[in-house]
Design a protein that fits this description.
CATH class of chain A: Mainly Alpha
Largest interface: A-B, 51 and 51 residues
CATH architecture of chain A: Orthogonal Bundle
Strand content of chain A: under 5%
Number of helices of chain A: 15
Structural class of chain A: mainly alpha
Helix content of chain A: over 70%
Oligomer: homodimer
Largest sheet of chain A: 2 strands, antiparallel
Mean pLDDT of chain A: 93
Radius of gyration of chain A: 18 Å
CATH topology of chain A: Farnesyl Diphosphate Synthase
Chain lengths: 301, 301
């Protein structure tokens, strides 16, 4: 496997290679010793789907800093497991009540709500297990840092907190700062943590880490703005999930706040800021991270 | 605070002191910076209730081995957070659909299903965060061991796996080995992990750790057998939850398998084995652990 970063032209090949690595690792790690029904639901939730954006951010960042590849692969899979668990729980009838995800029936449609609930719970636990191997594949002090970054980004101060703010925001007119604060938790925290986990696989200066944190924050917010744009401009078949959900659910979005054209322009500005943060990082091998930011901005789903 | 173990006569005082310590620590740690709605639901789920059996096992075992008190208190709270999250999710309509827990309305009755789901999710994350402090209150290699023990006990090979086996067992006639295998995961893994986390706060011989693991396994299974006995012999007011649920849900129990008298006798035998394991542990300060086993056996709820 290549550990060099790649320019825009070679990015699609790199992306497919890394997606395949992540798919294989997830298939190996989810979750061979679980009871049959639980293991099936966990694998259905995780395998054979998704852009793997968060794992790609971990891997690209780790490669940019010449970090430990074995730790990066575990971190990449751990963050994807957190993302996958959140989707399973989000899709439940008591939350978003979604029946379609990545073009397939959602986990509770396929396996029932009770098993979907447990599969989500067990995927979260497995994320931490992956970061705490006994086999020495992650140096102990690094394992601790990675697990800490993941826990902060996933919990009440991160993703789960943002989801709770989202629940409280239905039918409420949020101003842009409040909307951004919610999304920095709900989707931004885990995307930024992906970058920071990749960064943690090497020893960096505080300044470089801070610029990578900026990159992750700008990219994370851009991701959400693009998501809101796609929710009104793409169809369900392209998205692989139900389009138009936010408006139907009366949730505030960047499009409802700014209008479509202004939301698109805002996403571009955020991506420019992400690129600028990389340029000031002091790192020389940032091509793949630049390409990932463009991929986030130009994606169709 | 006392770190000596106590005999049976002083056990109730010790228990109340330690329960108060755990309550205070949980109140400090759950979850001051969370969004208001989520923080309220998390605190409601965790505070002011429960026997705190798992924390007491961690603390008693840590005191028996003269382990690090600060690490033990974090581990005690972490294991309670995992227990609390599992109760919140278990009580949801798609699982056990329980409206009463510890004599109060369950979390989803009080805060709605969506927030209950998120509160459970965030409590699980917080359990791992507690074990990964940046303040040096847990030595890094110990933090890693504690988080690993907790993850294994909580996930697909432990509690969540046992719950999935439980789901698959409704209306099924299980033989005793299958019933025990389910309960060793569903309730036993976390109870045993409580003992092992307490043990991990000091450096012990493999033989002593193995005997403590035996103690935890026997006590864990005894706890479940007593639970099944209480489900048919106590009323809802005493239990603080709905009595008679297992029979109503057509779930296999030790009572349905063995009959009431034989189930009671089996619990006694398991507790005898727990006591014997302590006697062979090579530890001299095991009075509190003995008293805890008796408490599990004689409890009324």
């Amino acid at each position: 496997m290549s550990t060099a970063t790649v320019d825009a032209a070679r990015f699609p090949v790199w992306r497919e290679q890394q997606q395949a690595r992540v798919e294989q690792a997830l298939s190996d790690w989810v979750s061979p010793t679980a009871p049959v029904n639980l293991g099936q639901a966990m694998r259905y939730a995780v395998l054979d789907g998704g852009k793997r954006l968060r794992p790609l951010l971990v891997l690209a960042c780790s490669q940019a800093v010449a970090g430990c590849p074995a730790a990066a692969l575990r971190a990449a899979c751990a963050v994807e497991l957190i993302h996958a668990y959140s989707l399973v729980h989000d899709d439940l009838p008591c939350m978003d009540n979604d029946v379609l995800r990545r073009g397939k029936p959602t986990v509770h449609v396929r396996y029932g709500q009770a098993l979907a609930l447990l599969a989500g719970d067990a995927l979260q636990t497995l994320a931490f297990e992956l970061l705490l191997p006994e086999d020495g594949s992650i140096e102990p002090s690094l394992a601790l840092v990675l697990a800490r970054l993941l826990a902060r980004a996933a919990g009440a101060d991160g993703m789960a907190g943002g989801q709770a703010q989202d629940l409280a925001s239905v039918g409420v007119k949020l101003e842009q700062p409040a909307l951004e604060a919610m999304h920095r938790r709900k989707t931004g925290a885990l995307l930024q943590a992906s970058v920071l986990m990749g960064a943690a696989t090497a020893t960096l200066s505080a300044a470089t880490t801070a610029r990578l944190a900026d990159y992750g924050a700008h990219l994370g917010l851009a991701f959400q703005v693009v998501d809101d744009v796609l929710d009104v401009s793409a169809d369900s078949a392209t998205l692989g999930k139900t389009a138009g959900k936010d408006a139907a659910d009366d949730k505030p979005t960047f499009v409802s706040l700014l209008g479509l054209a202004q939301a698109q322009a805002y996403a571009e500005r955020l991506l420019d800021q992400a690129h600028a943060a990389l340029q000031h990082s002091g790192l020389s091998q940032t091509d793949t991270l630049h390409a990932l930011a463009d991929w986030v901005g130009r994606r169709a789903h």
